[in-house]
Design goal:
The chain has 416 residues and is mainly beta. It has two helices and 20 strands.
Length: 416
């Protein structure tokens, strides 16, 4: 939820969420050693609505084998964001709208039992520019029962802060945002660099059971905060008993994540999937994810699936919903993504394979729908919009914030 004005302070938060969606979209057909993806085209519509935020837009993915050993792909992804979230309203800003556009392309080259992949992703929005490259190699071994994959990715981001132009009333990039108090030519942005290293292995254990393990290390350096989200600290003389101030984040962050997944195929063509993931970082966050899914072939050409996911994390070491005073510590944050919370996601999906009559160049086509409901219970992030609205709702004693969101996806795939 980071997309941009924070007013846009959704920015930091939305950005994490939408980047996850983008990564999933780009990985619709993951690289498998020894096998190139089929020629296909996907057209996707997605919509996220919850917490005063609506994100929606299209995506198009095309992948094509150029030769028996080389395949290329291209993805277009666009988000339209409308926000009147709690972060925007608490900071006193008005609701806003904006658009983010992403282009990506890559290739996969097959040589024997090895598959080499590389690509680039460019994402642009009014106050955030991002470029990412990735490289990976996958190797089949032990009679093609085991596949090992290693991946490296590198990202370069430029973070801007939008302010209102007093002459026109429009949002423009703050020309001195990147100066950090230093004299000299105006610099409108700050940099953030990212590196990721991952290794994974999948193993066919029996004719019905497949297991996989993945481990990833991410390092971030530079401006990692949001230019819009604010902390609050006790201020008895203020109107609501608190005063807002800018967040102060460390300039570095290293995170580690390990996941294990097992998929078991049942005798009536259905499948059960279970996954566990552990996350930790140098900011003191520890997170646990558990997910279970079931896929069932049903009537005629329909396939249905359902998932349940639970996630929990503790707060970052420098997070607080309400600081006792100004400059209480070196680093201060009130980004709810760094708070302690539990989240629950229940999802259902359906896929329908359908023929296109009198068409010689399309081999197969399918229509897919997915609906997820997300519930987040925050343990130490309070609804500051309710301060003073009822007896006892003083600063630091407001009700804890809850977020409910619905995520809908629909896409058509054709194989040619």
């Amino acid at each position: 939820m980071q997309l941009t004005v924070f007013r846009k302070r959704i920015r930091m938060s939305l950005q994490r969420h939408t980047r996850t969606l983008l990564a999933l979209c780009l990985c619709v057909t993951p690289a498998l050693a020894g096998v190139l993806p089929d020629d296909r085209a996907d057209v996707l519509y997605h919509r996220y609505q919850g917490g005063g935020i609506t994100i929606q837009g299209p995506s198009v993915l095309i992948q094509k084998k150029v030769t028996d050993n080389l395949a290329v792909n291209y993805n277009f992804y666009q988000d339209y964001l409308t926000s009147a979230s709690i972060d925007v309203l608490v900071s006193g800003a008005s609701p806003y709208k904006e658009k983010r556009t992403q282009h990506s392309g890559g290739f996969q080259y097959l040589h024997g039992k090895s598959t080499y992949s590389a690509g680039i992703i460019n994402s642009s929005e009014p106050d955030y520019k991002s470029n990412t490259t990735y490289y990976s190699i996958s190797q089949d071994m032990f009679g093609d029962l085991t596949t090992v994959t290693m991946t490296y990715k590198r990202g370069w981001d430029k973070v801007f802060r939008d302010v209102k132009d007093p002459a026109t009333g429009r949002l423009v990039n703050d020309p001195r945002f990147g100066n950090t108090g230093l004299a000299g030519p105006d610099i409108p942005f700050r940099d953030a660099d990212h590196r990721g290293y991952a290794v994974g292995a999948s193993q066919i254990l029996t004719r019905n059971l497949i297991a996989s393990f993945n481990y990833e290390v991410l390092t971030d350096q530079g401006y990692l905060a949001s230019p819009y989200r604010k902390i609050r600290y006790l201020s008895p003389g203020a109107g609501k008993g608190f005063t807002l101030a800018d967040q102060v984040y460390p300039n570095t962050r290293t995170s580690n994540a390990a996941a294990i997944e097992a998929k078991y195929y049942l005798w009536y063509r259905a499948a059960i999937t279970a996954q566990y993931r552990y996350f930790s970082d140098t900011w003191g966050i520890r997170g646990h994810t558990a997910e279970i899914g079931y896929t069932h072939p049903a009537w005629k050409s329909w396939i249905f699936d359902g998932t349940f996911r639970f996630y929990t994390q503790n707060a970052a070491s420098f997070y607080s919903d309400l600081f006792p005073r100004a400059n209480a510590q070196n680093f201060e944050a009130r980004d709810r993504e760094l708070a302690a919370f539990n989240s629950f996601t229940i999802g259902v999906g359906a896929a329908y394979d359908f023929p296109i009559p009198r068409n010689r160049w399309i081999n197969k086509s399918s229509l897919n729908f997915r609906l997820d409901h997300l519930l987040i219970d925050y343990k130490d992030f309070r609804n500051a919009l309710l301060t003073g609205t009822a007896p006892g709702f003083t600063a630091g004693n407001e009700p804890l914030y809850k977020l409910n969101a619905t995520i809908f996806q629909a896409f058509v795939s054709v194989w040619f």
